[in-house]
Amino acid sequence: MSLEFFHITDVGRARDNNEDSVSVEPAVGLAVLADGMGGYNAGEVASQMLTSFIATELGRWLEESGAHASSGDVRRAMDICVDNANRAIFNAANTNPRYAGMGTTLVLGVFREDGLLLGHVGDSRGYRLRNNQLAQITRDHSLLQEQLDAGLLTPEEAAYSSNKNLVTRAVGVEDTVMLELHQHEMQPGDIYLFCSDGLSDMIEEAAIAQLLISHPSLAEAGQALVDAANEAGGRDNIAIVLVRAEGRAKPEGRAWWPFGKR
User: Fold this and answer.
1) Residue 200 and residue 220: Cα distance in Å, rounded?
2) Which position among 112, 137, 205, 206 has the lowest Cβ density within 10 Å, counted as fewest Cβ atoms?
3) Which helix H or strand E contains 158, and what residues bound it?
4) Per residue in 81-108, pLDDT tens?
């Protein structure tokens, strides 16, 4: 199965600087997206530190060992790399007053023949478009999601909540961080979308799905998503990674039955 990658960031219409960062390494099937937070330009520093660290360190490991590594090996490598990046950002925040309190969300994908290993921290999201149906395949680490899970808010109330941007987990804000990591089966034709909340807060999922379906080119689809988020107000930076799986599904083969016709 072959993979096609596209990524784009945009400052939006309300911010002066871009605190979102992405890095894509198609040769090793690696995609990283981060949405920084913090005063001054600290959020921008945190997100760029994270994407650069992971692209360099995990990218090198995947290039050297990834082809022969098991899924368990890759999961451990992802955990170790995120832990090391977390410590680097945490130490920078605690040794430079300008960076005090900085942190960042993360969506991290390693695309392999046996599926997608997808890790995330915070409220940046991963989606999958399959058979024209869009599904969110990450679960936000946010106060709003906890309130939804506890039944304190309905989805309709959540859309207007003042707690929409309060994350409960982020990279760099504490000396340790837990990467939530799951494996997903990939099928030919799947499109995977990683995005910051500058997209997901501005456009409903049905509209995201329609834009992906109506633009066969990933570059056109990505630009259309950015344009739609800006047309809706562009209240935050926008970061997008799109990955399309291409190829043919494995033949099912004929089942063997030793007792005559069924």
Assistant:
1) 18
2) 206
3) helix 155-158
4) 999 999 999 999 999 999 999 999 999 9
